[in-house]
Amino acid sequence: MLAGSCDGVIVPTTTDREKRNRRATAVAKRRRMSRGRRGELPALPAVKKGSDQRYYHPPAISGTLTLKACPATGIFAFWVRV
């Protein structure tokens, strides 16, 4: 049996500034297209608000992550013991 624990993860998020830049690039590319080609494309969806931070730190899970092998099949299984 292998047991270990971790104190958290860092999840990258898309900031509001990055979303605005990507949107501006998409709009610029569409404007450069011919009218016929542009008419085939669906309208861009409304812009959703981006994150105000570059990384998100989810709340820590207290417990132990355990890895065990099933003796019959040899398949490994993970679970968290809280």
Could you walk me through the main structural features you see in this protein, from its secondary elements to its overall organization?
- With 82 residues, this protein is an alpha+beta fold.
- Helices cover 28% and strands 23% of the residues.
- The protein has a three-stranded antiparallel beta sheet, with no helix packed on it. A two-stranded antiparallel ribbon has the order 2-3.
- Strand 4 and strand 5 form a beta hairpin.
In total, the number of domains comes to 1
- What oligomeric arrangement do these chains adopt? single chain
What is the strand content?
A: 15-25%
Averaged pLDDT, please? 77
Shape: elongated
Biggest sheet: strands, sense, closure? 3 strands, antiparallel
Strand order of the largest sheet: 1-4-5
Q: What string gives the helices and strands in order?
A: EEHHEEE
How many β-strand runs? 5
Number of discrete helical segments: 2
- Uncertain runs are 1-5
Measured between the Cα atoms of the first and last residue, the distance is 17 Å
Helix fraction bin: 25-40%
Radius of gyration: 23 Å
What is the structural class?
Answer: alpha+beta
